[in-house]
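Assemble and predict.
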Amino acid sequence: MAVPVSNREVAAILYEVADLLEMKDVKFKPAAYRRAAHTIETVAEDIGRVAERGELEDLPGVGTHIAGKLKEILESGKLGYLERLKAEVGPGVRELAEIGGIGPKKAMLLHQKLGIGNADQLEAAARAGKIRALPGFKEKSEANILASIATHRQRAGRSLLGRMLPVAEAIRARLAAHPAVRQVSLAGSLRRMKETIGDIDILASSAEPDAVMAAFTALPEVTRILGRGTTKSSVVIDPGVQVDLRVVEEGQYATALQYFTGSKDHNIALRRRALERGWSLSEYGLKDEKSKKNLAVSTEEELYRILGLPFIEPELRENRGEIEAAESGTLPALVPYNAPAGDLHVHSDWSDGRDSIRTLALAAKERGYRYLAICDHARGPGIEKGLDAGKIGEQRAVIEQLNRELGGIVLLPGIECNIGPDGNPDLPPDVLKDLDIVIASVHDSLRMKGEEMTQRVLAAIHHEHVDILGHPTGRLLLRREPSDLDLPAIFRAAADQHVALEINSSPSRLDLSDTNCRKARDAGAVFAINSDAHAADELGEIRLGIATARRGWLTAEDIVNTRPAGDLRGWFRR
DNA sequence: GCCGTTTTCGGCCCGACTGTTTTCAGTCG
């Protein structure tokens, strides 16, 4: 391998090929390239290693031709075929198709007839009334294009799950209160609890779909109505997010919920499976291909059962092997949302948190937790509000007093210390040894070179008093890439040293990510799902971390803080 | 371009909505 190329980069090249082939109106190849790209994104192993073993064609969706192209990418970092396609299709056409209402056909036409290659040029042409002269366009098209460009610019793209979930739940609740609505559920990537979401999908059942649609499009936060029909309507709401509502009859709710939950790849795989068994699957039910009769399905469980599968949880529906696992009976029993017996990472007003330890403890008790680890920041470079050895002693006295007083919940004295550039925690061993929970996290110099950074984190994992590696990759969703780390080495060391990997539930972290959880679990690691709450009302964000664990195929056994406090201490003390 | 419990050739998920159209293509999910 001449050039180091990540699986993600390889997949991005194939996705671009697929898009450009679609512009050229080539049939079926786009889907073939996308299937191969999805496989490469999904496999745990580095694609270069698979190539070295000569096993590229064993990957689903990869045949002789794509295997050849993969070799070229791995050799040179580039693909001649892609360069030729780009030259042929023209610059900017792919970007044009990202504007709502513009697809591959219209993008090509606009480029070929008017030389348009970006949103600015498109806007100018629409304002000048030049687009209405093209076949298939009129004045209305120009107005729609201008509105779509505005929406396109306003939209930041994807949004954090943790930010959109409350917004979506509020809309869902208002629809649920409408008298014409029978059932209503979140669907799409929100129901799958994907870490970022593109839009909000909601499904309802009703005998009066028009009334539901009228109520939906009249919601106060709606800023633009993209479409309104009797079964499907789309709007844009205030934070610049699209919301799609579909309304079906009650009898179609189960198949519609399955369909509308996705993912697209999961659904395609499921429909293919249905076809193999003589069924045609759509959101309206299962149709027998021979008799053309629709079979009523009342629950998602029943739908999967008819297709010969156990129920597949929404968080798993990404076509990452869940259908095969379901078929062979090896689906994991996902960690339940109520499984945590406590939270091992919260901050109080002793450091940068908002609430007192007492307030946090009462809120944790209210949630049914048996224990709560108070892990304020240790004082270190850049963390002025952190605790030094003296403060830690004072805080411990407060914690012990509350433990005598409260009952029903045990507060564990802990600390979140920074891992210095040399790999050492910023507190000495004789301070750390008396604490129940020591979290070690990287907070600065996140852009160190891969080898140095890996050594730094490995040193912390091997430290005798470290229990948990906090937010292991340091990523911030939509803002900061993960640090350059040899993750397989980190996962192996953590498994070996009995150091739990944190799944940090902060909405912008969710670190480890779902796919890394799965890889780490395969390496034998265990996990702590923590809220990293800086206020009592953030304890509930742990559900985002649990969702991430579920998307990473983890069970309750993989999570240390599903265990009773006694077991927990034993496990960490090893 | 891939793939096989009908197939090594001939299929490839399925339907709603919009805007243009006068019977349907393009887009979207």
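The domain at 264-327 of chain A is CATH 3.30.210.10 (Beta Polymerase; domain 3).
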